[in-house]
UniProtKB/TrEMBL annotation:
<dbReference type="InterPro" id="IPR036812">
    <property type="entry name" value="NAD(P)_OxRdtase_dom_sf"/>
</dbReference>
<dbReference type="InterPro" id="IPR020471">
    <property type="entry name" value="AKR"/>
</dbReference>
<protein>
    <recommendedName>
        <fullName>NADP-dependent oxidoreductase domain-containing protein</fullName>
    </recommendedName>
</protein>
<keyword id="KW-0732">Signal</keyword>
<dbReference type="InterPro" id="IPR018170">
    <property type="entry name" value="Aldo/ket_reductase_CS"/>
</dbReference>
<feature type="domain" description="NADP-dependent oxidoreductase">
    <location>
        <begin position="34"/>
        <end position="306"/>
    </location>
</feature>
<dbReference type="Pfam" id="PF00248">
    <property type="entry name" value="Aldo_ket_red"/>
</dbReference>
<dbReference type="InterPro" id="IPR044488">
    <property type="entry name" value="AKR2E"/>
</dbReference>
<dbReference type="InterPro" id="IPR023210">
    <property type="entry name" value="NADP_OxRdtase_dom"/>
</dbReference>
<feature type="signal peptide">
    <location>
        <begin position="1"/>
        <end position="17"/>
    </location>
</feature>
Length: 341
């Protein structure tokens, strides 16, 4: 016991916030159970740019309230601004590198084995880091510089991923938007098992089979676009549960939470790491305040009932690519979801 007169001095600026639990991956490393999404959308001239340091300030606020896992990708063009926020927090000693978990992704135009380390080094330069905690192959389909189909086999890409892991540039490696067959092939033919799988998961696409399969291999699933139809997509509202949905409202009332919090917790309770994006300070706080309650099996089942296998990320313009991971649609030109990622 300390005598009453002894003051325990904590650095004044120490960042505290919500303590987010971690999930163990199949390589023994741990991933924080919530990640901040940083994709700002796609406009006429390519990825939407952050203005007036909006994203930098959002990342700083996120770190202040407890986020430790940031999700980005080369194609989002947000790595440099995230890097600025990280540098501020690391340079002033409020955070240490090992407190952070940074995920970024390899874009489709760099799928040749020797291009992988080049691409990751470029991302690291922008992020101002020596390594990322997780590097993901963004899509199984490779593209040439001019966006025509490349026939690079994703196993060749995976060998490049194994190279960057061996070089220590990525502490863990994984994939995004791979289907079960593609994941099975990686597990069979690769030397290093993927540690994470990032896929679209929300009440309208619950991904029961793929999540179960990944879990059986110790692969941690990250769920992107976790709010599904609760929020506007491409400037529009789509059919599906909204924040006022009576089933979600009932569950939310029971725990004194909001419906977006219930949906995020639904992912957490399925051992899926939600990747909600927000640049709004209040919503950043709302989205991390989900670790003081737990849904029942019955609540989870009620939310599962919204499943309709609806994807908001459906790049059907690539559906003739031999490695396109999703079910093909009849009329890709009529795809209501505008071209993105
Ligand atoms: N691997 C892939 O191919 C892939 C594809 C898509 C996305 N992702 C990743 O997943 C992240 C999230 O996906 P997403 O951006 O498509 O969708 P999302 O996180 O489900 O939705 C983001 C939208 O919800 C709003 N929002 C955030 N919190 C809210 C709350 N509590 N209440 C009401 N509205 C809220 C945000 O607005 P404000 O910012 O104004 O709060 C934003 O408009 C991306 O940023 C990216 O990192 C990965």
């Amino acid at each position: 016991m300390l005598p009453a007169c002894v003051l325990v001095l904590l650095p004044l600026s120490m960042v505290v916030g919500v303590e987010v639990p971690k999930l163990k991956m199949n390589n023994g490393k741990e991933m924080p159970a919530l990640a901040l999404g940083t994709y700002l959308g796609f406009g006429q001239d390519g990825p939407v740019k952050s203005e007036n340091n909006m994203l930098r300030d959002a990342v700083i606020h996120a770190l202040n309230v407890g986020y430790r896992h940031i999700d980005t990708a080369a194609i989002y063009e947000t790595e440099a601004e995230i890097g600025e926020a990280l540098k501020m927090k690391l340079d002033n000693g409020e955070l240490k590198r090992e407190d952070l978990f940074i995920t970024t992704k390899l874009w489709n135009t760099h799928h040749k084995r020797e291009q992988v380390s080049e691409a990751l080094k470029e991302s690291l330069k922008k992020l101002g880091l020596d390594y990322v905690d997780l590097y993901l192959v963004h899509w199984p389909m490779g593209l040439n510089e001019d966006y025509t189909e490349s026939d690079t086999d994703y196993m060749d890409t995976w060998r490049g991923m194994e190279d960057v892991h061996r070089l220590g540039l990525a502490k863990s490696i994984g994939v995004s938007n791979f289907n079960k067959e593609q994941l099975t092939r990686l597990l069979r033919e690769g030397s290093i098992k993927p540690s994470a799988l990032q896929i679209e998961v929300h009440p309208q696409i619950i991904q029961k089979e793929l999540v179960g399969f990944a879990e059986s291999e110790g692969i941690v699933v990250m769920g992107y676009s976790p709010f599904g139809s609760l929020v506007m997509r491409f400037g529009m509202l789509f059919p599906g549960p909204k924040p006022t949905d009576p089933v979600l409202v009932d569950i939310a009332k029971k725990y004194g939470k909001t419906t977006p919090q219930v949906v995020l917790r639904w992912l957490v309770d399925r051992n899926i790491v939600p990747v909600p994006k927000s640049v709004n300070p209040k919503r950043l706080e709302e989205n991390i305040n989900i670790f003081d309650f737990k849904l029942t099996e019955e609540d989870i089942e009620k939310i599962n009932e919204y499943n309709s296998n609806t994807r908001y990320t459906l790049p059907s313009f690539w559906q003739d690519h031999p490695y396109y991971p999703f079910e093909k649609i009849e009329n890709p030109a009529a795809n209501p979801f505008v071209k993105q990622e």
